[in-house]
């Protein structure tokens, strides 16, 4: 049995003639070389945080000068439970300087396990090996390293790398392709406790330690663990509109509360929708050092049949049969891309990979998706793992309208090949603007390359609609609409007869409040006009909508969705048109710093609607270089139409820099009330 000379450092009685360990300095302060050179100075951790494949240094002080000719020392790194993990690998090491204090350089292999290690120092004596006792000051975290070419996540693009690894603030796009909105999000990957929370997710998943150096396995496992559908993962999804037992998805402003809440409670956090899943997943990936970004696909197909068709079923009168129409088109859907090599695929299919934590369909028995190579999706290689076929359908499905007769037979009456995957956006590196990356997912609509890709996808079993129904000689034209919440409005439906004979159309005009997932919440308008049109003429049918008809039906992320279908009496042809008005059903707050006083933040909300709002909470996230703590201001009050609410928050700057402050107002009657402002803290 050995006893320490220095508390928590030595495990034996020192003998002057033999080398003995006196102190170990991990050089773990943010201003020291290790964290600076490894791009980890922003991590709010008392421990050393470094990246694999790159040298870091430690100082070891002995009781006498180190003599390389006769002294033998060793440095050991242990991860996980030693009794369960016995794999040994050799890392690079060298002695840089030595006297009584030895400066040792250590280089973890570029494919080593990512996680929390403990370092031991051992010396050889004639009486055996003398080894330091375990002490938390010698814990260290080793992360992926996108700056090192030998690492699987190496990204040789400095602006992209800075954005997709180091940036703590992001933009997430939503709305519709012709009316894009943006949501600021604080990823907070460097905030205190977030790194431990991310490692806990892998522990909770019982992921083998030996798999934790592989970004493919980590991203796939995390895709399942970020949702709670089958594994008690991080987030509970809800699209019901009832968030009584949690936080409305539109109220979240950052990932910190979610990840820390999950790690502390060991219970899934309520609630999330696609952009929350993607944002928290982004924090997880960036925190571990895997380059990642949030991507939004506008008009994203959710195909339940495993084909390349989104089927909309019409009854024999031309009205949508909502009981038989199971496929849906989301106004937008958010997922993640992460950057890594793919040694499991043929050369050329590494780089950006799609991963998606939103629980839509199962993959290998669990609700998860990816990683799927973006290049494989673009080139129709949908047989490649993982889930490339599902993502391919999200951006390439045809929208097929079927007319179902009374005997159950169905006939395609219209095929729209350009509606789905209309635009794919992500944030521009280094700027608070959007970047169109649609061309990374698909070739131009109608091009020879697109036809080749679709033919290749069919070879792998994806079915497309081959028929090409002749166009009807009557067109329905819905105008572009801009609608402000709470307003009455009207529009004219134009019916155009392109034939030389009179046409009579039995039309169905339906107006619904729909979730952004394309699922109908409620129908507020239904009209059945019969319209006669002279040859080569057009007729306009006026449609008037009163706000009281839709206001009580509003849900968060709501859109008004108008569908017009009609049957031409003379020909039996079915005609259809759809339109989502611009101007989403929400209002904006404005967040600003007050009179340039750094310690005070003032948030003002102006209710532009002509009805009163009931608000419950105001939220702002912890921002690593701005706020000293999260703010969640509970309350219950009425905001009359045209009036305002002002709230003041005090905060302590933690470091110099520029960032964005986000605030949301949790208001059940009108979700997605948010604002943001840029704040700069001088050194």
Shape: elongated
In percent terms, what proportion of residues is strand?
Answer: 35-45%
Helical content (DSSP H or I, runs of 4+): 10-25%
Described by strand count, sense and barrel closure, the largest sheet is: 6 strands, antiparallel
Q: Helices and strands: which structural class?
A: mainly beta
Which strand order spans the largest sheet, edge to edge or round the barrel? 20-17-16-14-23-24
- Mean pLDDT comes to 84
Distance between the termini: 52 Å
Our count of helices gives: 10
- The Rg value, from CA coordinates, equals 30 Å
**Number of beta-strand segments:** 39
Parts with pLDDT < 50 across at least 5 consecutive residues: 1-15, 583-598, 624-630
What does this structure look like?
Helix content is 13%, strand content 38%. The protein is mainly beta and 683 residues long. Helix 3 packs across helix 5.
């Amino acid at each position: 049995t050995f006893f320490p000379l220095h508390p928590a450092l030595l495990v034996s009685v020192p003998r002057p003639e033999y080398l003995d360990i006196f102190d170990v300095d991990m050089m773990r302060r943010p201003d020291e070389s290790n964290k600076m050179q490894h791009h980890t100075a922003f991590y709010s951790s008392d421990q050393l945080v470094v990246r694999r494949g790159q040298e870091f240094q430690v100082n070891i002080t002995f009781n006498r000068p180190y003599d390389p000719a006769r002294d033998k020392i060793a440095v050991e790194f242990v991860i996980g439970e030693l009794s369960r993990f016995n794999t040994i690998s050799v890392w690079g090491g060298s002695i840089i300087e030595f006297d009584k204090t030895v400066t040792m350089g250590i280089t973890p292999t570029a494919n080593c396990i990512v996680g929390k290690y403990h370092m031991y120092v051992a010396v050889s004596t004639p009486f055996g090996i003398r080894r330091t006792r375990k002490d938390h000051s010698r814990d260290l975290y080793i992360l992926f390293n996108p700056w090192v070419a030998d690492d699987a996540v190496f990204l040789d693009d400095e602006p992209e790398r800075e954005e997709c690894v180091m940036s703590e603030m992001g933009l997430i796009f939503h709305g519709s392709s012709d009316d894009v909105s943006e949501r600021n999000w604080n990823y907070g990957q460097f905030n205190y406790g977030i790194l431990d929370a991310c490692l806990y997710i892998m522990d909770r998943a019982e992921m083998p330690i030996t798999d934790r150096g592989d970004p493919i396995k980590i991203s796939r496992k995390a895709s399942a663990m970020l949702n709670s559908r089958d594994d008690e993962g991080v987030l509970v999804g809800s699209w019901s509109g009832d968030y009584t037992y949690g936080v409305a998805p539109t109220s979240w402003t950052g990932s910190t509360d979610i990840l820390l809440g999950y790690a502390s409670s060991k219970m899934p956090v309520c609630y999330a929708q696609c952009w929350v899943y993607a944002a928290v997943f982004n924090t997880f990936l960036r925190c571990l050092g895997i380059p990642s970004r949030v991507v939004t696909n506008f008009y994203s197909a959710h195909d339940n049949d495993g084909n390349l068709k989104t089927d909309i079923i019409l009854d024999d009168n031309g009205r949508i049969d909502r009981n038989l129409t199971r496929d849906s088109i989301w106004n937008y859907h958010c997922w993640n891309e992460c950057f890594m090599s793919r040694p499991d695929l043929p050369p050329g299919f590494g780089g950006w990979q799609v991963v998606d934590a939103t629980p839509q369909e199962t993959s290998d028995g669990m609700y998860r998706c990816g990683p799927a190579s973006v290049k494989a999706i673009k080139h129709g290689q949908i047989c490649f793992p993982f889930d490339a076929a599902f993502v391919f359908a999200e951006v390439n499905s045809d929208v097929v309208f079927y007319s179902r007769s009374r005997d159950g037979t169905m006939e395609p009456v219209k095929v729209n090949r350009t509606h789905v995957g209309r635009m794919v956006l992500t944030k521009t590196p280094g700027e608070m603007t959007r970047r169109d990356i649609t061309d990374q997912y698909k070739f131009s609509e109608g091009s020879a390359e697109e036809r080749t890709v679709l033919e290749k996808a069919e070879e792998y079993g994806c079915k497309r609609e081959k028929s090409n129904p002749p166009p009807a000689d009557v067109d329905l034209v819905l105008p572009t609409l801009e609608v402000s919440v709470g307003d009455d409005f009207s529009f004219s439906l134009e019916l155009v007869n392109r034939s030389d004979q009179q046409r009579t159309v039995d039309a169905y005009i339906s107006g619904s409040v729909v979730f952004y997932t394309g699922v109908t919440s409620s129908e507020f308008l239904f009209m059945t006009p019969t319209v006669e049109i002279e040859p080569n003429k057009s007729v306009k049918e006026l449609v008037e909508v009163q706000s009281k008809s839709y206001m009580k039906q509003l849900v968060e992320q709501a859109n008004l969705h108008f569908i017009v279908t009609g049957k031409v009496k003379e020909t039996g042809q079915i005609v259809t048109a759809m339109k989502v008005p611009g101007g989403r059903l929400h209002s904006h707050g404005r967040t600003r710093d007050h009179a340039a006083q750094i310690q005070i933040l003032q948030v003002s909300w102006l209710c532009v609607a002509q009805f009163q709002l009931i608000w419950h909470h105001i939220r702002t996230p912890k921002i690593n270089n701005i706020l000293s703590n999260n703010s969640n201001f509970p309350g219950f009050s009425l905001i009359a139409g045209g009036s305002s609410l002002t709230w003041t928050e005090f905060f302590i700057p933690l470091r110099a820099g520029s960032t964005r402050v986000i605030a949301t107002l949790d208001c059940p009657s009108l979700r997605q009330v948010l604002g943001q402002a840029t704040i700069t803290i001088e050194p």
